[in-house]
Design brief:
alpha+beta
Length: 414
């Protein structure tokens, strides 16, 4: 359909100066509208990719890439499980843990998840050491009954480093005066800030042996947490480990542990893509009005082409080429502009903040104080192709209308 003659005439019409300057203005507006829509779509999707990456990093910094647990019981002989896991490709760290709900009491009372860890092993599977605001994870020593709290949890309890908190376990123990709850006083030796309210307000760390004594776990642990060199290999590694481990073990990867959250982020990104694509669609369909006016303006040219033997398909192709040329130029401008903006968001936003004296994401409100951006080239190509499809669809009706022009009627008043 797009023969060399159709392409040549269509491109010539695109470059030619029109007698009707209003048509040229509408063409320019259509092109700039497409460029603006494409650029906005690239920037917004890149920022959402950046937020997703930042949130995923913060979540995985606390939950690990994969977790090995046993069905309905504790993991006994965790050292053997760790050895088997470390032999698998991609596994770079493994650490046992005990995790139970507990009630923490000091000036105030707050519930929390108490996680017992071995500090030197924990740093190989999580980013907790890098998230410490005060103190360090190494200060958790077996038998010393020390605790590290999230900053929001410490604020809720009204404590700081050096204070003591009483931890009440859900287990009960018998005594001469009757059944009383299991409790132990711990000294606060550190505060961490992971940047996620769920963890900062509801998670506390103690040494593995102290947690075992408090919860009466014996030598068993809740499970073994793993870190991989490629987090996207977690699902495959989890399946292979489940087959290698003896007994009824369960291996869950990070996509299963927070599947609802990541599914929501993915859905939000898709919905945002659809909504912003409508901006591109509106701009692209401005080509309809542009080409309709061009077809009206070129009635005599169409009639002469038909008289010289041009087929309706050739005439249709001429105007489709003209519309696609405008759409292609607008898409290319939008792609270049969008990529440039997406790659420099972290520089542009601080500049605008200084210039206009505002803060887009105040640090006292948001955990993420900078606008993150991650450019994914597959998204760029998808946006570019989508824009061109919209432009192609927009040219069909005006081009078809041009192909239906009758030479005699078009030349009657010339």
């Amino acid at each position: 359909m797009f023969r060399p003659l159709a392409i040549a005439i269509g491109l010539r019409y695109t470059r030619a100066k029109r007698r009707n300057h209003f048509i040229s203005f509408i063409s320019l507006v259509s092109m700039l509208g497409i460029a603006l829509g494409v650029a906005a779509l690239i920037v917004v999707i890149s920022v959402m990719n950046g937020f997703e990456q930042e949130l995923r990093a913060r979540i995985l910094g606390m939950i690990s890439h994969a977790t090995i647990t046993a069905y309905g019981r504790n993991v006994e002989g965790w050292q053997e499980v760790v050895d088997v896991a470390l032999q698998r490709p991609h596994v770079v760290g493994a650490a046992p843990y005990i995790e139970r709900e507990a009630l923490l009491q000091s000036n105030r009372v707050s519930g929390a998840i108490l996680r017992g860890v071995i500090p030197e092993r924990e740093i190989s599977v999580s980013e907790i050491a890098a998230d410490m605001d005060e103190g360090s994870l190494d200060q958790l020593v077996a038998g010393e009954y020390r605790i590290v709290l999230g900053v929001e949890l410490a604020y809720s309890l009204g404590v700081r480093v050096g204070d003591s908190v009483t931890v009440l376990a859900p287990q009960m123990r018998a005594s001469p005066v009757g059944v009383i709850p299991q409790l132990r006083r711990f000294k606060v030796v550190g505060l961490f800030e992971a940047g996620m309210h769920e963890y900062d307000a509801g998670l506390a760390f103690v040494h593995l042996e102290d947690a075992a004594k408090l919860f009466r776990e014996g030598s068993g642990v809740t499970g073994v947490r793993l870190k991989l060199d490629d987090l996207f290999q977690a699902w495959r590694v989890a399946r292979e480990l489940a087959a290698d481990l003896p007994g009824d073990y369960q291996v869950r990867d990070w996509t299963q542990q927070h599947s609802n959250f990541f599914r929501a982020v993915k859905t939000e990104k898709f919905v945002m893509f659809v909504i912003l694509s409508l901006i591109v669609a509106v701009a692209a369909f401005n080509l309809v009005s542009t080409l309709v006016m061009v077809v009206t303006d070129k009635q005599a040219d169409i009639a002469i082409l038909r008289t010289l033997g041009a087929s309706p398909q050739l005439v249709m192709a001429v105007f489709m080429v003209q519309g696609l040329a405008v759409g292609l130029l607008g898409t290319l401008i939008g792609l270049v502009s969008g990529v440039a903006l997406a790659l420099n968001v972290t520089r542009i936003v601080p500049f605008l903040e200084r210039l206009f004296g505002f803060q887009a994401m105040p640090g006292d409100i948001y955990y993420i104080s900078e606008l993150p951006s991650k450019l994914v080239w597959s998204d760029v190509w998808t946006i570019g192709v989508t824009s061109l499809i919209f432009a192609l669809v927009a040219t069909v009706y005006p081009a078809w209308r041009a192909s239906r022009t009758q030479p005699a009627q078009a030349l009657r008043y010339e």
